[in-house]
Amino acid sequence: MKPLMLLFWILAVPIHTFVLQPSAHMTVMQNVSAEGDLWAEQRFEHLIEAEKEKRSEEEVIIQGMVHSKRAEEHGVEQTRGLTESEVKNKEVVEKEEQQGQNLDEHYIKPILTVWNTSHSQEIEGEEHLPPVVNQTTTSPIMTTASQPVLNLHTKSVTVPSSFPSTSQGPAATTESIITKLHIVNSTAEAIGATLLVKENGTNDDLRVELHVMNSSKLHLMEEVSVDVTAMAARAGPTAKAPLGTLMVKSKNKAAGAKHKDNTTLKAKKKKVLKVKAKKTKVLKKAKKVSKLKKERKSKPTTPSYFPYFEDHYCPPECSCYGRVVQCSDKDLGKIPYGIPYNSRYILLMNNHIDSIQSKLLSEYDSMEFLVLSNNHLTDETIEGAFEGIKSLKRLYVERNLLQSIPNDLPVTLEELRLDGNQVRVMSDAAFGHCPNLLILSLSNNSLGNKSSTIPPGVLLPLGKLRTLTLSYNQLASVPLQLPLSLRELYLRGNRIQRLQGDMFWGAAELQVLDLSSNRLTDKGLGKASLLNSSRLESLNLEGNLLKQVPLHLPRSIKTLNLEGNFISSIGKDAFISMPQLEHLGLARNKITKVALGAFRVLPLLHQLDMSHNALQQVPRQLPLWLYSATFSHNKIHVIPRDAFCWGPGNESPLSRLVRVHLEYNMIDLGHLDTLAFRCLRGFQVVQFY
């Protein structure tokens, strides 16, 4: 027959000492009927099924407790900021909780032993239980508050004689004892127990084990049918008188639970040591950080912009070469932050900069050259941006969206380029702040558009101005009352029809005048046009409407460009007033005839270009000191003997010609007069093809 079991559930009450004090004597009666044994066996099976259900529920509770405990242990590892006292207190609490949980998981099984002897009765470690024979007693005894009480209630049942006996011995008359075990705790907490009957194989020793599991707040009363007859039959023929002594033994089970508690405590200690080690590392790092902070505080404070604007710093968008900062073609939307203050050249062309931060440029005391060409700057976005710059000399703001000249230009400015904007007007206030300006370039703007013109004398405040560029605007006349210091004036690509005499009030220093691609006529260049330009050396009249070589030009002219006009002939005295002429351009005209000796009066002429005309022969008596002569793309078919080589008598000095271009003409080499080239350095000088 299977061992009988009884489970009593106990929650939360740790059992340090569990003492069973008998409240009644257990009497074993013989001659128990087989019917009572059958009833007890059915009752036991019913209890086993109930116990399985309870155990499954308890396992779910225990698993939940284990998971929660693991979460708490994980939380312990994350607590780094606790002090040592707090860590110790927390370890004690967790140790107690772990002990309680281990007792829940592992049953503490005190052993309830029945010795089937006729003379001896004992409870191990406790007083003897007084025997009560052949009577039913119910006397629960309450002990102290800390000790649960075991109450034993016995009943005798007669077993029929037909009950089978074992093979080990004859059938013995036994009694089935239905025992009620009441484990009562005065604190309203209960102890669950399991009663197991084990067999030693002999009739002398019958052991009943009571397994107690630590639980809390549970009070159970169970009835167990102990089949003494079956146990006696299995014990063998040596079964003695039905006298039993109940003993409790829990040493082995408690020792196992204690061993498990020790392992868990060791694991706990290891985890605590790990936490302490981590804490010490954190403390060391904190000490290092505090030392660094103290060192930083002890050092002198650095500016708030460090490392920006420092000499050794270079913005990541730029490339720095000494004191030159190259930020061009970087697709920038604004001036990079942190450009060193000691920079001399700052190049920001070809970006998308549409504004300049207020008072940013005034901090650059060493900046001499600033390039903002090809951006999206407007009058509003640069207002006040250039004010206060101490060393700026060159400012390029070409190809932007400006409609006027900035009024806050620095005093030190020497070169200002505003080409490719939309400037329509010029005011006195714009140039009053920069009297040291030397170069002013305003080409490709809208000056002179419709009714707007340049007021007379607007540029007089620029007393040191050397170069003025107003090319490709819409000017109908040359600005009046220009500064006398002006040396170069570029007016190409306008609508100028007349050159007025009051362009300068006084003797001007003008040396270069470019009036190409305008609408000048012969009348537009009167006697007084260049009266005050006695120092003029280069005059460009290309692409106008002239029909003859202008008269009354200054004697100081060295370069005269008359290409692209409508000149048809050149008279003998056309260049008589220009003895210092060195370069003469007459290409792309309609010249068919040149008077004899027209160029003889130009003793210093070095270069002559008469290509793309309608000449039929090479002009006669060209200057002997001529260096290069170009007559290509004409209708020349005759080369006179005195074209290159002429002089008194039949003798002529050696010519200085190096290159003579006669390509694309109508020259017949078979009838060519070789004496025409007698004074040349070689026949290779002449290019026919």
Automatic annotation (TrEMBL):
Q: Where is the signal peptide?
A: 1-17
Question: Which is an annotated Pfam family here?
Answer: LRR_8
Q: Does the keyword Glycoprotein apply?
A: yes
Chain ranges of the LRRNT domain? 313-345
Q: Which UniProt keywords apply?
A: Glycoprotein, Leucine-rich repeat, Repeat, Signal
User: Known Gene3D superfamilies for this protein?
Assistant: Ribonuclease Inhibitor (3.80.10.10)
* Disordered: annotated span: 71-99
Which PROSITE patterns does the record cross-reference, listed alphabetically? LRR
- Source domain of life is Eukaryota
InterPro entries xref list? Leu-rich_rpt (IPR001611), Leu-rich_rpt_typical-subtyp (IPR003591), LRR_dom_sf (IPR032675), LRRNT (IPR000372), SLRP (IPR050333)
The name this protein carries in UniProt is LRRNT domain-containing protein
